[in-house]
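Handout, page 2. Input:
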Amino acid sequence: MKIAVFLSRFPYPLIKGDKLRAYNQIVQLAKQHDIYLFCLTRGPIDPSDMACLQPFCKQIELARLNPFVSVLNVLLALFLRLPFQVAFYRSNKLKRQYDAFLKKHKPDVCYHQFVRTAPYAESISLPSVLDFQDTLSANMFRRAEKSKLLSRKFFFIEAERLRKYEEEMFSLFDRTTIITDADRELLSCKRKNEVAIVSNGVSDKYVAAPEAMEKKYDILFCGNMGYKPNIVAALYLLKTIMPLVRAKRPQTTLCIAGVNPPKEVKRFASKLDLIVEKVPDMRQMYLQSRVFVAPMQIGTGLQNKLLEAMACKIPSITSRLANKALMAKDGEQIMIADTESEYAKHILTLLEDQSLSQSLATNAREYILNNFRWEKCNEVLESVLLSATKTK
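Output:
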């Protein structure tokens, strides 16, 4: 097949979950199909980043958003029912560029990532597939509940608009996908059972047997620190969980790794906390850590950080919310915590009980390798794309 892939941002470097998903899907699909990549951008793309995608794409075309138009669209959306993030990425000029791109390359199917790219699928006669990824409306509702005053009102408005917009996607696209069954259940759409589950996976470097490395950090948390759910989790770990841990084990070290950490995260870091902003290879961070903790409080979807840590054979602790998508067995493949005292208890237990720690880590790695491999995930995606081509 000739597949046109439409992304709202360039999928490299791999510092966000959607970039990681898009990159690995492109790499896998390119083994059997021709990929034509069309990306919206908000700035220039580094040539070295472009070079990482070129071996897998027959053509890459960038479409640069005009910041003035994006802001104006958001302001106009105040008087409309369009989700603000959809309005931000909307552009009549870039829609014409995309139409010309499709006319030139004549793909068999178009694959769009996120509902924010939906306006670009309007009026095209080609088979099309939308990747919801997560249920963004549910994510926004959760963010609203954790926010204050004006932010709370804004997120509630956006959540309700997204909820209605998600329903409209079934009439615009021939097929739809989402990462987890848990997120599919959160869709308030009559046809949600038609959405195919296309999970995330781990790349080959995580499948390789993890080598033994010196442990530099007792606890690790990682992720894009410009993303609100990760900020909330990091602050919860720093401000609430770690004081309980250090009350019983004062020397316990914590590393928070990820780009764009806000000042608030840096401000709460102590002498025993290390903030690492630039990580050449996150796998090395996992292998140098004794315990991985992802105390996610908001957000939806499958946490790539948990897939990677568990594949690296690192005992992991997370929230019940995050495990809804992962579905690992509590106490056997992962540890689940609902309160800060439970997090602290689990951390101390895993740091002190090496037998339990090793058993949990071994089971975790086996679970990930049996259920979350990109090759397996993309077999499902490939079948969805192929089925879409038979609709028109």
